[in-house]
Amino acid sequence: MPMNMIVCCKQVLDPEAPPASFKVDPASNQVVPPPGVPPVISPFDEQAVEAALRIKDSQGGKITVLSLGNNLLRDVVKKPLSMGADELVLLEDEAYEGGDSWSTAYALAMAIKKIGEFDLVFCGRQAADWDAGQVGSGIAELLGIPSVTVARKVEVADGKATVERVIADGYQVIEVTLPALITVSNELGEARYATLKGIMAAAKKQPTIWKPADIELDPSQIGAAGRRAKLLKLFQPVREGKCEMVEGDSPAEAGANLAAKLREAKVI
Amino acid sequence: MAEFKGIMVYGEIAEGNLSAITTELLGCGRRLADESKEDLLCILIADQLGETPQKAIAFGADKVYTVENPLLKEYQTESYVVVMEKAVQDISPRVLLMGQTSVGRDLAPRLAFRLGVSAAMDCLELDIDPETKLLQQTRPVYGGNARATFSSDSFPQIATVRQKAMAPLEPDKSRKGEITPLKVDLDPAAIRTKVIETVKEEVAGIKLEDAEAIVTGGRGIGGPEGFKELEELAKVLKAAVGASRPPCDNGWVPDTMQVGLTGKIVTPELYIAVALSGASQHLAGCSGAKNIVAINRDAEANIFKEARFGVVGDWKQVLPAFTAKVKELLAG
Ligand SMILES: Cc1cc2nc3c(=O)[nH]c(=O)nc-3n(C[C@@H](O)[C@H](O)[C@H](O)COP(=O)(O)OP(=O)(O)OC[C@H]3O[C@@H](n4cnc5c(N)ncnc54)[C@H](O)[C@@H]3O)c2cc1C
Ligand SMILES: Cc1cc2nc3c(=O)[nH]c(=O)nc-3n(C[C@H](O)[C@H](O)[C@H](O)COP(=O)(O)OP(=O)(O)OC[C@H]3O[C@@H](n4cnc5c(N)ncnc54)[C@H](O)[C@@H]3O)c2cc1C
To answer: Are B54 and B199 in contact (CB under 8 A)?
Structure first.
């Protein structure tokens, strides 16, 4: 049976940018974007798109992508379209900025209500910038639907989804009624690449833009105004690290010297 | 409106015993309770609790609330959230602490949204502001590259705590405390999920979480064969073998071997990192190690910023000689 699916995709600073390029501006409590490193769709969200695409491949359906933010880069947020998603809705406005998990989930849940019909909502297990892992469960709670988090496999049949949920020392197989929300982890496997055809199709598609009023958002609940968790301070932990480099005339000798060094330092 | 009072720990039970994170939370909760001159409360939920309530008292709790019900045999979001919602309404704690575990990750946000309050996930530090009595929650963000401190003023203030970030107290069997059963009605029809099967994928040998020494391989190991060489070294050191994410993603080793932000958090005495670059998300899982030793062919690799000792070189050439020498030293 064709499935109506919604995937929430967040634009984030590239989490794999070299750690040395990471800077916080303490005055504004904000991260200074590293020059020359473009933002990306949070990797787990790409895998959430992949999870939806696999279901679409096997039984058909429609995938709508939702991204919330301000000044979102079209090349970035359109990537799920070029992978094969059907529609893109942007919640894009200044008012959405500086929110917390609460205001973010609230806006996304209201947008999903406006979309109306759906069988499955997918999120990433956590956004690769603020790493909270709350928005998915929050959306499910606000919509009153069940959720299964940290999924590595999702299959749908007979009005139910069967989900493999990653746990510390293995996984659980969980059956959930639809509609449901599922958060996806990297164990699902790599997200597919955009095809040339996909990229051309995505270039032609115009995203739908919803301002807060379009989804009947109460201004007191949006972005920074709607926060329930207040950020007091953002800072970089100090690393005192000093590494003693062990050398040798050959790599093998360096290896043997390392062992001797560890013995000397009573580490082994 | 009820007055919110007390620091509450949500306890997890593993194989009939308090799990390690629970004793850590009780240790941290005891300090917060003493600082705010309030009681340390603990809630335990399972089909059968056995001796765990007494143990929670020995580890620092003043009052333990228990919920036993056959429907609570396995963690399921919808049954557990109903129990916790009721418990919070009945008891009105000011702070609720949970572990950043498979359960806490899932339960804390769902409960926070149900109660209309916020949760801070994966905290490393928790402090009570002496003036406002509010909990301040410090957690890593941006994969560990930065930390953020949050607070909130709706109760309970919920925080999940990273495993091994807090120290448990020495258990004291003579400590006195109260145990109170709570009654919660559960409607099986309202639980829309069903656990069909739980599959353990534990690797043989020493568990990563318990190991005193760990040998970890990264993408540069190149394939499953390379991990055999790491196992050689691990055998000599009585160490466990871990991996960064790429070897797991590539199927060279099981996913359960992943160390890092979204893998295992480990705190061994010795952590030997071979052919991995030291991405912040990886370091998030191992920076609590006492001594990090790195072998990497790139002198600029980030892992050297975190390591105490390092060798720049191809691991294929460095490692065999290293392993041989370690063997020799440990034998002699
Ligand atoms: C200037 C600034 C100020 C901030 N101030 C605060 C503050 O005061 N308090 C606070 O708690 N936080 C604050 N934050 C962080 C906050 O905005 C987090 O992003 C928010 O808490 C959501 O958490 P998360 O990003 O970790 O999402 P997670 O809960 O980790 O996200 C899980 C999943 O939800 C979906 N999702 C999340 N966000 C979006 C999105 N924007 N669009 C589409 N899908 C999405 C994705 O599928 C994602 O994988 C601030 C951030 C900035 C930049
Ligand atoms: C939200 C999020 C969560 C994540 N969670 C985790 C996590 O929990 N754990 C985790 O590990 N990663 C995690 N990652 C991925 C992380 O960002 C890095 O991509 C990953 O850790 C890199 O693994 P690596 O160091 O093995 O590979 P690379 O970064 O590719 O490094 C390979 C290293 O091997 C060296 N090398 C190559 N060949 C040799 C040789 N012959 N001899 C010696 N050295 C050699 C290279 O110089 C290089 O430094 C996460 C990412 C995100 C975005």
So the answer is: no
Round to whole Å and give the CA distance between B301 and B278.
7
Cα B177 to ligand 1 centroid, rounded to whole Å: 40
Q: Do A169 and B201 touch (CB under 8 A)?
A: yes
| Same domain membership, residue A156 and residue A266 | no
Domain membership flag for residue A236: no
A249 in Cβ contact with B318 (< 8 Å): no
Tell the residue number behind the tokens 């020392």, with chain if given.
A169
| Chain B residue with the nearest C-alpha to that of A231 | B150
Residue A134, chain B, CB below 8 Å: the answer is yes
pTM for the model: 0.96
Residues of B in contact with A125 (CB under 8 A): 262
Best substitution site from A7, A32, A135, A232 to test ligand 1's pocket, by max atoms within 8 Å of Cβ?
A135
C-beta separation of A91 from A10 below 8 A: no
pLDDT tens, residue order, chain B (332 aa): 569 999 999 999 998 999 999 999 999 999 999 999 999 999 999 999 999 999 999 999 999 999 999 999 999 999 999 999 999 999 999 999 999 999 999 999 999 999 999 999 999 999 999 999 999 999 999 999 999 999 999 999 999 999 999 999 999 999 999 999 999 999 999 999 999 999 998 778 899 999 999 999 999 999 999 999 999 999 999 999 999 999 999 999 999 999 999 999 999 999 999 999 999 999 999 999 999 999 999 999 999 999 999 999 999 999 999 999 999 999 97
Instruction: Check pocket membership of A64 for ligand 1, CB cut-off 6 A.
Output: no
Distance B303 CA to ligand 2 centre (A): 10
Structure tokens at A164: 């493999």
Do the chains contact at B110 and A147, CB–CB below 8 Å?
A: yes
Whether A197 and A257 share a structural domain = no
Contact B213, B268 (CB under 8 A): yes
A185 at B interface, C-beta within 8 A: yes
Tell me if A101 CB under 6 Å of ligand 1.
yes
> CA B218, CA B237: separation in Å to the nearest integer?
19
Query: Do the beta carbons of residue A9 and residue A48 sit within 8 Å?
Result: yes
Q: Sheet harboring B95-99: ordered strands across?
A: B119-123, B157-161, B95-99, B7-11, B40-46, B63-68, B178-181
> Could you tell me if A24 lies within 8 Å of chain B, comparing CB atoms?
yes
The answer to whether residues A131 and A260 belong to one domain is no
Q: A109 and A155 in one domain?
A: yes
Cα(A226)–Cα(B133) distance, integer angstroms: 23
Q: Which residues of B touch A233 (CB under 8 A)?
A: 148-149
Residue A65 sits in the same domain as residue A38: yes
> Is the Cβ atom of B297 under 6 angstroms away from ligand 2?
yes
